[in-house]
Amino acid sequence: MTINRLPHSRPLDQRVSLLSDLGEGVGWAAGAAWLAVRDGARGRRAAGASVGAMLVATVLVQGLIKGALGRRRPFVDRAVRVVGRRPRDASFPSGHTAGSFAAAVALSCFYPRDAPMLLGTATAVGASRIYLGMHFPGDVLAGAGLGAALGLVAHRLLRSRNSDRAPAAAVDREGVPEGGRDRLPFSRRSPAAPGASGRRPPPP
Question: Which among 114, 175, 176, 198 counts the fewest CB atoms within 10 Å?
Fold first, then answer.
């Protein structure tokens, strides 16, 4: 529980609590809705996969696994610092972490170049649950593994029959090079201006 013993302050507690709350589902769902509007067919598939995987993870954890295992929260038997309301349900596994990794892994499969950012965010959500005194590290690790597996399954179910990648020289309708299609829409670079490649323009 080293993370829980890190220095606490009111501003930091508030920020970590916000991250934890968004990771419970609202943040990922909002991002999925934005993708569905912004990135066409791929965005809609990615949104469906991420939200679907997250919902399945939540149902499995909250409705089945926690009730069957019944592990008590860290603050019940140990002296840990608790920030926020104390949940009454079981501890194992972490539902926040499972849902976050389910969404993050599904999105990473559609946008592999953004995988470090997505998985890093899910990892931060898991760490926040330990920092807030809500979970043991094992709860978070188990949630991450379950969520990651569900994210992979969701991607397999909703990926296009054709490859998500176009030929290397192809561009999409907006003129974005193929390499940009591996990134989330806000990560795409604008098409290069004429002559920006370093080649001299032909003589008039």
Answer: 198
Q: How many CA atoms lie within 13 A of 98 on its CB side?
A: 24
Give the Cα separation of 14 and 81 in Å (integer): 14
Q: Name the residue with tokens 């840990």.
A: 80
Using DSSP's 3-state secondary structure scheme, residue 101 falls into helix
Looking at the whole model, is its pTM more than 0.90?
no
CA distances from 71 to 31, 67, 91, 180, 194 (A): 32, 9, 5, 45, 62
Phi, psi at residue 110, to the nearest 5°? -85, -30
User: How many C-alpha atoms does 94 have within 13 Å on its Cβ side?
Assistant: 36
Predicted pLDDT at 161: 54
Residues 145, 97: Cα–Cα separation, whole Å: 9
Task: Give yes or no for residue 183 having a pLDDT over 90.
Answer: no
Alpha-carbon span 104 to 152, nearest angstrom: 10
The residues facing 171 across adjacent strands are 177
In whole angstroms, give the CA distance from residue 104 to residue 97: 10
